[in-house]
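#structure-requests
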Amino acid sequence: QVQLVESGGGLVQAGGSLRLSCAASGSIFSINAMGWYRQAPGKQRELVAVITSSGGSTNYAESVKGRFTIFGDNAKNTVYLQMDSLKPEDTATYYCYAKTYRQYWGQGTQVTVSS
């Protein structure tokens, strides 16, 4: 079992920045990758960014490339999503996930970007 606790959401003006954190506990040795999805009202959940546990390879949605950065701190078992140059269309609930033989999800954190 893996437990995920997210923090860092909030309200920010367009052009601003936020950093989301996702702390993992439990069977962390079994995690292959961690990342973030987001879901806006009336829309499907979409992958935002992912980072692998081995080697730290990253992948981003086209809509956030160049603006968002995912990185990890192995000592803290935490993954971060640095979000810069935020746009109103980034408004969504952001969910952290961890992939083992199955996926685990965080509780979600709201990000609201005002124009």
